[in-house]
UniProtKB/TrEMBL annotation:
PANTHER family: LIPASE 5, PTHR34853. It comes from the Bacteria. One of its GO terms (molecular function) is triacylglycerol lipase activity. This is Peptidase S33 tripeptidyl aminopeptidase-like C-terminal domain-containing protein. One of its GO terms (biological process) is lipid catabolic process.
């Protein structure tokens, strides 16, 4: 599976723990601004530079993991710049600057078709979208209110679905954008993790059931 972000990878790690590390006890999963509803992200983000970077990273990752040909969905003369984006880890504002330069050369539109409606890319989107089954452990989702890539409404909807499926979920919203949420929420996340290893009851923002 090609993970799109560290938050996305954290959710999948929590979901798959029992299959790849059954000897371990999962006490919690913390994720900052995870890529959750991938189909919605592909649809909503294509008009923004950050969203185009997300799209390029996802498609490039899946082409390498699944062996799909990028030139089937990306214009051949734009592949060079998509690879520029793939060479950056998107962990700093310098990486974002390099990506923004690549997007300028791409000049907005670089897709031949909509990945959500084009096989095998639509299958990859479904396969890599975090599931909403009852979680195996408490979950903390840190979300920036100013995030324009992973918008708060998507995180809230995902949390609500997990809550309805019996999960113990806390959404921590802060004044942050996509790049700053991990750093700004770090102390709170560490406190939350310490609480899980201390076997304390996990806090939740799920609505109580009467």
């Amino acid at each position: 599976m090609g993970a799109l972000t560290r938050g996305h990878a954290a959710l999948w790690s929590g979901d798959l723990t029992a299959s790849y590390a059954p000897e371990l006890k999962l006490v919690g999963v913390a994720a900052a601004a995870p890529a959750i509803e991938l189909a919605s992200l592909f649809k909503d983000d294509r008009s923004t530079s950050a969203g185009q970077v997300f799209t390029a990273l996802a498609l490039l990752s899946w082409s390498r993991v699944y062996g799909a040909e990028l030139d089937a969905i990306i214009d051949a003369d734009k592949l060079r710049y998509v690879n520029w984006i793939g060479d950056e880890c998107l962990t700093s504002r310098f990486d974002l600057f390099i990506d923004s330069m690549a997007i300028r050369f791409i000049k907005k539109q670089f897709l031949k078709s909509n990945p959500v409606k084009t096989e095998p890319w639509s299958e990859f989107i479904v396969r890599n979208t975090p599931v909403r089954r009852p979680p195996n452990a408490p979950i903390l989702l840190a979300q920036g209110r100013d995030d324009r890539l992973i918008i708060p409404a998507l995180t809230q909807d995902f949390a609500k679905a997990l809550c309805q499926n019996g999960g113990v979920v806390q959404v921590l919203e802060m004044k942050a954008d996509h790049l700053s949420i991990a750093q700004l929420s770090a102390n709170s996340v560490i406190d939350w993790i310490v609480g899980r290893f201390a076997d304390k009851p996990a806090p939740t923002t799920c609505a109580s059931k009467k």
